[in-house]
Structures are given as structure tokens and as C-alpha cells.
Design goal:
- Helices cover 42% and strands 18% of the residues.
- It is of the alpha+beta class and 292 residues long.
- Among the domains are: 20-82, no CATH class; 118-168, SH3 type barrels, CATH 2.30.30.60; 174-255, Alpha-Beta Plaits (2-Layer Sandwich), CATH 3.30.70.100.
- The strands form two sheets. Strands 4-3-2-1-5 form a five-stranded antiparallel sheet. A three-stranded antiparallel sheet has the order 6-8-7, covered by helices on one side.
- Strand 1 and strand 2 (132-139) form a beta hairpin.
- Helix 1 packs antiparallel against helix 2 (54-76), helix 3 (84-101) crosses helix 4 (103-118) and helix 6 packs across helix 7.
- It starts with 19 loop residues before the first helix and ends in a 38-residue tail after the last helix.
- It comes from Methanofollis fontis.
- Residues 62-103 form the Mechanosensitive ion channel transmembrane helices 2/3 domain.
- One of its GO terms (cellular component) is plasma membrane.
Length: 292
């Protein structure tokens, strides 16, 4: 070949329609695919190494690399005079059958990848998904495993997880809880509030910022209701909530403030001029069926 007459449109061989331009374009495509694959691999490793398990990261990286390779392969084939229409027609029926059979599997796989990347939940989180509450013990590529508070193993497909409303109780650092504490009407409400505040301040896990809120919320039927709102670390929320409630009760009782129980005052009207007689024990008629 005369170098001076070299053309990118010239065929590589006398019996081939593949030109040098095609080969250069294919090489550039392969190089670009390799670079993209490498960049994505490095990015995903840096972003997800500390967030997901090693085996999950490996599966995700393989899926990404295979996807890039397949796309590059399909783009390159026409330059080697491969007619994709025949392959598409031949594989059309098979793809329909396989697609129907594996629809849920593919849906779970794609949802699993999105869950790993988006990370609305993590292993150890206390969550509620579609009415199922518990701690996340594992997040696989196809399903999420939850251990309920009763110790029951629950496997939820990732497609269900991804399309459901997720309540993550520990997504934020702090979580608030509240009580309604009733005191008698005769009790000193400001004193009760001071006692409750002191109990909260004395607890090592009750947060100062955001701070607690204690105030008279309602004049109820049987008590003056004091609302107590406390912030605690999300991981220790339940422990702080249960400990504080009993401590508040004990401190109020120690200072002479009892928690009232429901009570009613009953008034009788005697519009008909009758008489109400209060009988002592042993007085009055015998119940039916009893003998003296």
C-alpha cells in the first residue's frame, strides 16, 4: 500500500468491506468503554466501600461492567457487518418468554441496585416497611432481611421495599418522644414541672440540644395534664423513654405529688319526693334464692 494514498475509507483487505476508519472507531469505542468502566469502578468503590458488604459491592461492580461491555458490543457489531435484525428476530420470542418468567427477578435485581446506591436504609437500622417493623439484618441484591422485635425472620423482595413507604426510625441522629403526665388539681403545677425538668436534666442520654419541653397542656376530667417532650439519641431512644417515665413517677411521688386515677362525682336528683336509704352490711332484703 502506498502511504501517500492511505484513506480511512479504504478496505482493510480486498475481500472485506471493513475500512480502516471502522477499525479506528472500534478501537476508540473499546478504549472509551474501558475508561468509563474503570472510572465507575473507582467511584463506586470509594462511595460504597464503607456502606455495603464486600460481596454486594462486587455484585454491583460486575453488573455495571457487564452492562457497559454489552452496550459497547452491540454498538460495535454493525461495523463488522453483523446484521442485528436477524438476532433480534430470533431472540424476540425467547426474550419474551424469559422476560415474563424473570420479570420479578429482574425487578428485584434493579431495585436492589437502586437501594444499594440510594441507601434509604442500612444494616442495623430500625425501620417499618409496609407494616413490618424490626431491625435490618441484611440487604442482598434480591431481597432485604428484617428481624422483627419478636425475633421473627422476614424476607422482603427488594422490589417491594423500593416501591413501599419506608419509615426509618434511626435515619436521623436524634428522635423525640413525649408523655402526658397527670397531676391532681390540688397539686402545685410549677413545682411538678421543675421536678420533671430536673429528672430529664439528670439523665445522661437526654439531649440538651434540642432541649426538652415541659408545660401544662390540658385541664382534663381527672387531672391537670402536663406534656413532656424529650429528645434522645435514636439508637438509645427506647431505653431513655422507658427509664425516664418511671423516674418521673417516682420523683413526683417522693415530693408528695400522686398520679391521679380516674374518678367521678355522682349527684342524685330526687324529683319524685322519694327517699334514698343507705343500707349497712347485713341489712335489706335477701337476694332471690338465698336462705337465712
Amino acid at each position: 500500500m502506498n502511504p501517500l494514498n492511505f484513506s480511512l475509507d479504504a478496505p482493510v483487505t480486498s475481500v472485506s468491506a471493513i475500512t480502516w476508519g471502522h477499525l479506528i472507531y472500534v478501537c476508540l469505542l473499546v478504549a472509551a468503554a474501558a475508561v468509563i468502566s474503570r472510572v465507575l469502578t473507582i467511584y463506586l468503590k470509594k462511595s460504597l466501600t464503607d456502606k455495603i458488604k464486600r460481596n454486594q459491592l462486587d455484585i454491583l461492580l460486575k453488573a455495571v461492567n457487564y452492562g457497559i461491555a454489552i452496550i459497547a458490543f452491540l454498538i460495535i457489531l454493525p461495523y463488522f457487518e453483523v446484521d442485528l435484525s436477524g438476532l433480534l428476530v430470533a431472540g424476540g420470542f425467547a426474550s419474551i418468554v424469559i422476560g415474563i418468567a424473570s420479570q420479578s427477578v429482574i425487578g428485584n435485581l434493579v431495585s436492589g441496585i437502586f437501594l444499594i446506591v440510594e441507601r434509604p436504609i442500612a444494616i442495623g437500622d430500625n425501620i417499618n416497611i409496609g407494616g413490618t417493623s424490626g431491625n435490618v439484618t441484611d440487604i442482598n441484591i434480591f431481597s432485604t432481611i428484617i428481624k422483627t422485635y419478636d425475633g421473627i425472620y422476614v424476607r422482603i423482595p427488594n422490589e417491594t421495599v423500593f416501591t413501599s413507604d419506608i419509615t426509618n426510625y434511626v435515619a436521623h441522629v436524634a428522635r423525640r418522644f413525649e408523655y402526658t403526665v397527670g397531676i391532681p388539681y390540688a397539686a402545685d403545677a410549677p413545682q411538678a414541672i421543675r421536678i420533671i425538668r430536673q429528672v430529664i436534666w439528670d439523665h445522661p442520654l437526654a439531649l440538651c440540644e434540642p432541649g426538652p419541653s415541659v408545660f401544662v397542656d390540658e385541664l382534663g376530667d381527672n387531672a391537670v395534664n402536663i406534656k413532656v417532650r424529650v429528645w434522645a439519641p435514636s439508637s438509645d431512644w427506647w431505653e431513655v423513654r422507658t427509664e425516664l417515665l418511671w423516674t418521673i413517677k417516682a420523683e413526683l411521688q417522693k415530693n408528695g405529688i400522686e398520679i391521679p386515677f380516674p374518678q367521678r362525682e355522682v349527684w342524685f336528683r330526687n324529683d319524685l319526693g322519694g327517699r334514698i336509704t343507705v343500707l349497712q352490711e347485713g341489712e335489706g332484703p335477701m337476694p332471690p334464692g338465698e336462705k337465712t
